[in-house]
Design brief:
Rossmann fold, 80 strands, Immunoglobulin-like, mainly beta, 8-stranded mixed beta sheet, 9-stranded mixed beta sheet, about 1250 residues, disordered N terminus, 15 helices
Length: about 1250
């Protein structure tokens, strides 16, 4: 019988790329010398609840590795897969895949990285913010939600789904999406209400602003809205300059406690009062409206931003400046981009939006990707493109973005909260700083031409900009904004004309025409001479080397003009058609250029950016998938292409088992994870069907034939009877250059077998398939006469501990009425599953009748797994199920309604096998792992505890190509011992975690101990103690270490580390009282109630002190209820500018011989005390003097004791029940430690 700690879904699929790192949105503009706040106590865990109700836990380990655990909702359907793309990790439940493939559910809802970095983790947010597109009349009927705001510009509503009810929200919303009858009346798409982040004398001179001022143009009378982090209205440059300031951030006023909004607002319209007018903004007389859409932390939900956009336009803002955006590339169809287009069209306002700071190709986020937005990149003081400025083309369709650039590097503007002493101004860099320059110029232009709408302003700013030689429109748009030219030039033109994206299979025989409009604001007609040319500017953005600057000009016939000259009448317009002939272009090529309008003297009047893209060659890949019987098999096929890019899913038809794909030429890996028939007639099998190397240089066909798949098996030495607690197969593929992909499929007890399709040996990159087992003694073995009955533990069930023969009683469907007249005390209840009674109530009825075990017979083929526990505890009675086939045979053996069975429970297996079988380069024709004992390490696991109680543990495997382990803890009972056998395979490390669980609610972890990364050798024998004395503050390899950076130090002290070597321990509840202080001399740099904190530091070498007081309830924790540790150490800035030096804190280890309850015999005590440093610290010296003192009255009095040869020697006085320890040590570099541990260990009674 298998019984995981919590009920899991039917299958667990984990697909991860090997660069897992939790990072969040990048600022569009940032100040220098910022440092992060300390993370949550680590090695503690961070959890986040997904909309499907799945709970994902991520635990950071030492060395940049992590452990990931997913807890499925009790009524989950199918399994889940975890997929890492770049630095983002996704958890994708099977039931979400159809909606993700159809595009009706936002993928970001399952982006764990984005959710955590956005502050949507469970510790910081009790709800999941959503934007629901569509206008159903039943919005108020969505369970477990609250309507936040209406977003009429995109026909949507922002709602907040309560995490406790997330599952019901998911079922309600996806039911609407899946049911055509409901779709017509309601929801069309579910988005995460994500977060965007805030992304002058010299810069004004650079763009020519003084010329406008000299002409009397300063933005007077033009309303400019600044949507940002608010504004400091007390700053002299902005005092009296803000006509309205409104906050759209819940719980925050419009004040700026971030600094970003004040900086951008003053760049647009600051008066320069604090600098005698020198540092005034571009349009110092504009009418500024401020909408606070980003919080004090610099983040804003999409719905806040959209609400602010609608407000700004409704207030009559002519120009709306937005120095913000998402870090994910946008194709211009997401809610924020759609809102920009709709509001622009409705009101005529011009949105000036930052391109972003990813610095990458196709990196422009939302809302800057909107068609109508004037999207701004950044250049430096020399008009060179900055390294951080996001570049085009627009994601997916290769449209022309950004539109324009402006100065954005080291821009000086108003400082929020500034004063004469600290300074009124600060420098920031980013496209956020470039954007308000252009917004200010737009205000000046709107003042000059009050009747112009958004398109005229945008075209004028683009067509009159300064051309930046050597750069393309995908890098800088039309060029750098030129104030003097835009206010003096009478001729303007369409800013850009994109001819389109031409797919490989698309008919390109028909030329495409776009109209360029020339406008003349002057009093005389002007004749323009037109010349247009296109140049090759690179290839696909998602292929290495695809980017490119201006290349050789193309065939002149590719771009044609309907006229070579055009006369534009005074105060009128004229048009010319530009025609591109894609049939003359080459596949996989970007074509960019411009149409230049000059006069008879050759002077340039206007420039229009033009371009198109022809998709590279595609081939047909026909895929056929068969199950183990040769029948068609449908499902989701994952494809990975060598080169840049992420894996993606394709649907294989359920009826035909086929998929026909048109793909770019190259090398692909294809993988399908599917349910097939298992070994047992009533069980499922898991099939890993893939081809790791498909060379697509022409049309090809492949067959993934389940009939050829081989079963992956493991046999333990000695032939012990075991059952699988973990069964998993990993598929790793790497092209050698880009992101490797690792997929993991870990199945539940629904499955009795794993099959893998053998492959040929790969010739490119790296490929590895690994099978993983965790085997224990059967938790419950049931026999009926001479017949073994396979039983399966139910979710939330107690574990059975009885052994031997026991009477079984048939109780119908197991309802309370079915027990009438039956004697069940001390017997086994045998019930048929029925919808007449829910599984928890069925278990309760059996317990009420006095049964010691409930066996449930499934009412349909296959294995039954149900949740039988309560809301906050396990069931009162052990519950297991059996198949309908086995149940029928059991019933047939009944005599007078009674059945004789033998039930042997083993709730704590005396042994455990953690087995791993990797194969490189190919899947072999046989997967039968039969390790010898000399190929395994023997690990004696010793679990200490002063009282019997629940616990759990797990051992994560991490191959060298894997950044994190995956798994979930299995239940055990403390105290106790167990013999583990672990595969000793090369390039493999193991990470071990154990917990003491609370009784309620639901046995959640209270204390957690984590090991570092362990490498085992074949034949090695080790013993590992968990929760053993002496528990005290001690750094361990299972958590991140205190570290020194250039301007600050980050400190993390795990306060409850046990006596096991290399462990790191901490409480995971609020049962502890901590005080962590960091001092430099007498100056307190940090004072916090967390175990982690940070302190700003000066670069020179100095003496620092870390002081940690830790306490926990002595009525619960008999040992180490209180500790006090002080570290004194020397530290200075790292030698390298971006270095990170581990701090040289002296650590203390104690060697105390106790029983499992933590008690030693009284009398002579020989206690080992060893001082040392963590590996890799900087500034450590040689350990010198060590002293030890003891107390027998909980620290009221202390006595120094002899310390000889690393041992403290002393006698315990009569009647003593606990020993408290105080130890000190120092090294030759001036680093020292002093540690007091009250009740470090107990003393046994002489009569015990």
């Amino acid at each position: 019988m298998t019984s995981p700690l919590r009920r899991r879904g039917a299958a667990v699929l984990v697909a991860v790329a090997t660069s897992f790192l939790l990072t969040g949105p990048v600022a569009q503009g940032t100040a220098a010398n910022a440092h992060p706040a300390p993370s949550a106590p680590s090695g503690g865990a961070t959890t986040v609840t997904l909309l499907t109700g799945d709970v994902v836990t991520v635990t950071a380990l030492a060395g940049g590795k992590s452990a990931v655990e997913v807890t499925r909702p009790r009524d989950a359907v199918g399994g889940y897969r975890t997929e890492s793309v770049g630095k983002h990790i996704f958890v994708l439940p099977d039931e979400a895949l159809p909606f993700l493939a159809a595009g009706t559910v936002d993928r970001r809802l399952f982006d764990v990285t984005t959710l955590l970095e956005s502050g949507y983790d469970d510790a910081h947010s009790g709800g999941i913010p959503l934007i629901v597109a569509g206008a159903p009349k039943t919005r108020t009927l969505i369970p477990s939600t609250a309507a936040v705001r209406s977003l009429p510009s995109i026909d949507a509503t922002a709602i907040k789904a309560d995490k406790a009810g997330a599952r019901s929200v998911w079922q309600h919303l996806t039911g609407s999406l899946a049911n055509p009858k409901l779709r017509s009346a309601g929801y069309t798409k579910i988005w995460l209400d994500g977060k965007a982040k805030a992304s002058m004398v010299e810069s004004n001179a650079q763009i020519g602003t003084p010329a406008a001022w000299s002409a009397g143009l300063d933005g007077h009378g033009v309303k400019v809205a600044v949507l940002d982090t608010g504004v400091d209205q007390n700053h002299p440059d902005l005092a009296g300059r803000i006509s309205q300031a409104v906050s759209f951030v819940p719980g925050e006023d419009a004040g700026d406690r971030n600094g970003h909004g004040t900086h951008t607002a003053s760049t647009i319209g600051g008066s320069g009062a604090a600098s005698g007018g020198a540092e005034k903004g571009v349009a110092p007389k504009s009418d500024l409206l401020v909408g606070k859409v980003l919080s004090d932390e610099g983040f804003g939900q999409d719905s806040w931003i959209i609400d602010g956009m609608e407000w700004a336009a409704d207030q009559g803002a002519k120009v709306i400046s937005m120095s913000l955006g998402s870090t994910e590339a946008s194709d211009g169809t997401d809610p924020m981009a759609a809102a920009v287009n709709e509001i622009t069209e409705r009101t005529g306002a011009l949105f000036v939006i930052a391109a972003g700071n990813t610095g990458t190709e196709a990196g422009i986020g939302s809302p800057g990707a909107a068609d109508s937005a004037l999207t701004i990149g950044a250049v430096d003081a020399d008009d060179a493109l900055t390294w951080f400025s996001s570049k085009g083309p627009r994601y997916k369709d290769y449209s022309l973005k950004p539109d324009l650039t402006a100065p954005g590097n080291e821009i000086l503007a108003a400082k929020a909260g500034g004063n004469a002493e600290s300074g009124w101004y600060e420098s920031m860099s980013g496209t956020s700083m470039a954007t308000p320059h252009v917004a200010g110029v737009a205000a000046i232009l709107a003042q000059q031409h009050p009747d112009w709408k958004w398109a005229q302003l945008k075209d004028a700013l683009m067509s009159t900009s300064k051309k930046l030689d050597g750069l393309t429109a995908y890098q800088v748009g039309a060029g750098r904004v030129d104030v003097q030219n835009v206010i003096t030039e009478k001729i303007t033109a369409t800013g850009s004309a994109y001819f389109g994206f031409f797919g490989w299979a698309q008919d390109r025989s028909t030329p495409v025409t776009k109209t360029i409009t020339y406008a003349n604001a002057g009093d005389s007609a002007v004749t323009l001479h037109l010349a247009g040319a296109l140049a090759v500017a690179g290839g696909p953005y998602d292929v290495a080397g695809g980017a490119g600057g201006p290349g050789p000009r193309t065939n002149p016939e590719v771009l044609g003009l309907s006229a070579q000259t055009v006369t534009v009448p005074a105060h009128g317009t004229a048009t010319v058609d530009a025609t591109a002939d894609p049939s003359l272009g080459a596949a996989g090529t970007r074509y960019l250029g411009e149409v230049v309008a000059t006069d008879a003297t050759g002077a340039v009047h206007a420039r229009t950016q033009v371009g198109f893209y022809i998709e590279d060659e595609r081939y047909t890949l026909d895929i056929k998938v068969l199950d183990r019987s040769g029948k068609p098999l449908g499902g989701f096929l994952e494809l990975q292409k060598f080169g840049p890019g992420s894996p993606w899913l394709e649907m294989v038809d359920e009826t035909t088992g086929t998929a026909t794909l048109r793909l770019r030429g190259g090398v692909y890996s294809a993988l399908m994870l599917a349910d097939v028939a298992g070994i047992d007639p009533d069980a499922l099998g898991a099939a890993v069907l893939g081809d790791p190397e498909i060379v697509l240089d022409r049309d090809r066909s492949i067959v993934l034939d389940g009939r050829k798949a081989v079963q992956a098996t493991a046999t333990v030495p000695g032939g012990q009877r075991t059952e699988d607690q973990v069964l998993r197969t990993d598929w790793y593929r790497w092209d050698g250059t880009n992101e490797p992909v690792l997929e993991r499929w870990q199945v539940s007890p629904h499955y009795d077998s794993m099959f893998v399709l053998p492959t040929k040996k790969v010739t490119r990159g790296e490929f590895e398939v690994t099978t993983r087992w965790r085997k224990t003694a059967p938790l419950l073995a049931v026999r009926n006469g001479n017949r073994d009955i396979a039983v399966f533990g139910q979710g939330g069930s107690q574990l059975y501990s009885g052994k031997g023969k026991v009477d079984g009683v048939l109780v119908g469907n197991g309802t309370p009425a079915d027990y009438a007249g039956k004697q069940l005390k001390g017997k086994v209840a045998i019930a048929k599953r029925s919808d007449d009674i829910a599984a928890p109530q069925r278990a309760q009825a059996a317990a009420d009748a006095g049964a010691v075990l409930l066996l449930v017979i499934n009412d349909e083929p296959g294995r039954l797994l149900e949740w039988v526990g309560g809301d906050d505890d396990y069931s009162r009675i052990p519950v297991a199920s059996m198949t309908a086939r086995d149940g029928a045979a059991l019933i047939a053996s009944a005599r007078n309604g009674k059945i004789q069975i033998t039930a042997d429970g083993t709730p704590n297996s005396p042994f455990l096998y953690d087995l791993l079988d990797p194969h490189t380069d190919q899947v072999p024709g046989k997967l039968a792992y039969k390790p010898r004992t000399d190929q395994l390490a023997r690990v004696e696991m010793v679990f200490h505890g002063d009282a019997t109680g629940p616990g759990s543990d797990f051992r994560y495997d991490l191959r060298s190509n894997v950044p994190f382990g995956v798994g979930y803890r299995f239940r055990n009972t403390l105290p106790g011992t167990r013999t583990d056998w672990v595969s000793a395979v090369s390039k493999t490390e193991w990470h071990e975690v154990t917990t003491i669980e609370a009784v309620l609610p639901f046995h959640d972890p209270v204390v957690e101990e984590r090991s570092g990364l362990i490498t085992y050798r074949g034949g090695q024998r080790v013993s590992t103690d968990w929760f053993s004395p002496v528990v005290r503050p001690r750094l361990g390899l299972g958590a991140w270490q205190p570290v020194r950076y250039a301007g600050y130090m980050a400190v993390n002290i795990t306060p409850w580390t046990d006596g096991g070597a290399g462990h790191a321990g901490f409480l995971t509840t609020d049962q502890e009282q901590l005080r962590l202080r960091i001092r430099k001399g007498d100056t307190v740099l940090e004072d916090t109630t967390w175990q982690a904190g940070y302190a700003d530091t000066d670069p020179e070498k100095a003496t620092y002190t870390i002081d940690l007081e830790a306490a926990r309830d002595p009525s619960i924790w008999k040992l180490s209820p209180k500790t006090h540790t002080t570290w004194v150490f020397q530290s200075q800035a790292p030698a390298q500018e971006f270095g990170d030096d581990l701090l040289p804190l002296v650590q203390l280890d104690y060697d105390v011989e106790t029983n499992l309850a933590g008690a030693a015999w009284p009398g002579l005590q020989v206690i080992g005390v060893k001082a040392s440093h963590m590996p890799g610290v900087v500034g450590a010296g040689k350990i010198g003097q060590t002293t030890v003192a003891v107390s027998f009255d909980d620290g009221k009095t202390w006595k120094n004791v002899p310390f000889i040869g690393g041992k403290a020697l002393f006698f315990t006085p009569p009647g003593a029940t606990f020993v408290s320890l105080r130890a000190t040590a120092k090294d030759s570099a001036g680093n020292s430690v002093s540690q007091e541990v009250i009740r470090a260990y107990a003393l046994r009674s002489i009569h015990s």
